[in-house]
Amino acid sequence: MIVREFIKELRNCHSMFDAVSERALMESLQVFRTFELREGESASIGGFSGDLLFVVIGKVDVGNNKAQSHGAPPIRFPEPPQLLTITAIEDSWLCHLDVDAFAYLAGIEETFDEIKAGGQCSAALLEKMRTSTAFRRLPIEYIEDAIKGITEVNVRAGDEVITDGKEIEAFYVISSGRAEVLRLNPESGDMEKTEDLGPGDEIGEEAIIMAAKSPCTVNMVEDGVLFAMDVAKFREILLRPLLAEVSPEVARAMYNAGNRFIDVRFVEEYDEGHIAGCVNVPLFDLMKRRAEFDSAKEYVVYCRSGRRSAVAAFKLRQLNINAVSLKGGIKAWPYHELLEPTGG
Question: Could you write out the three-class secondary structure of the chain?
Fold first, then answer.
């Protein structure tokens, strides 16, 4: 099946995929594991508890003669080491979704859209950064600060971006143009070309992280444009402490004190089981429902493993809402008497 056709069917499969653009899905297929089963074929597959399996095309039996077809709710993976066994009733295409990775991808899309709508960055620069691997790797909560610290630098063929043995002035990502890396050969004493760099490649991070002088020279071989972030900002983003999070024990004390609990997982995950008395506000809906939060209250935000809740807590704190993330998510919550079952 052509990838674009598969993406189209996937987006028709469930509304949660509307949160991510077709372009982003095309660029980030690593968060999905797609596979085909012919009629009569069976497969036993494992995944993290909470991962989802979508029947994108066709129909399968997921056990006990329970048929699942295109458009039906996703199948939830069991706790490891249990496997999910499925048999194709007809030729089928399936998608195994890493929920946390997908939530991160959607969160990046939302963050870039919010920055663009706020006019905080030129649309051209923002779009280049949006498609840059280097910046898409940043934790979501750091993206806005990173964008504020970025400038564009025009360079010409022959320019030295960084020089061997000298201090690094900035961290760079190539937006356009090409460069070459020259390193000293200790045996010959000559500078030798070791790498070719192009759009999306990074320059200078090695020396900055090690707090050392540049171990190489990078020359532009074509005219181009670089994204530049000064060293102090780069170190700040890398080294700043993680967002406030609390252990399950502290969260239990906050629960007993009447603090509000917010579950930012998908509705399907919430329905499977959640902390009693919490409110389900999926991460993708958080900003739309910001009016529901009271700045005079304290909130404990949780998800499955703590990754999405860290983003949610950061967003709420930007709104001056006192929110902390539950360390380890509901997977680490030991107080089973406070869990409500499916549909509870």
Answer: CCHHHHHHHHHHHCHHHHHCCHHHHHHCHHHEEEEEECCCCEEEECCCCCCEEEEEECEEECCCCCEEECCCCCEECCCCCCCEEEEECCCEEEEEECHHHHHHHHHHHHHHHHHHHCCCCCHHHHHHHHCCHHHHCCCHHHHHHHHHCEEEEEECCCCEEECCCCCCCEEEEEEECCEEEEEECCCCCCEEEEEEECCCCEECHHHHHHCCCCCCEEEECCCEEEEEEEHHHHHHHHHCCCCCEECHHHHHHHHHCCCEEEECCCHHHHHHEEECCCEECCHHHCCCCHHHCCCCCEEEEECCCCHHHHHHHHHHHHCCCEEEEECCHHHHCCCHHHEEECCC
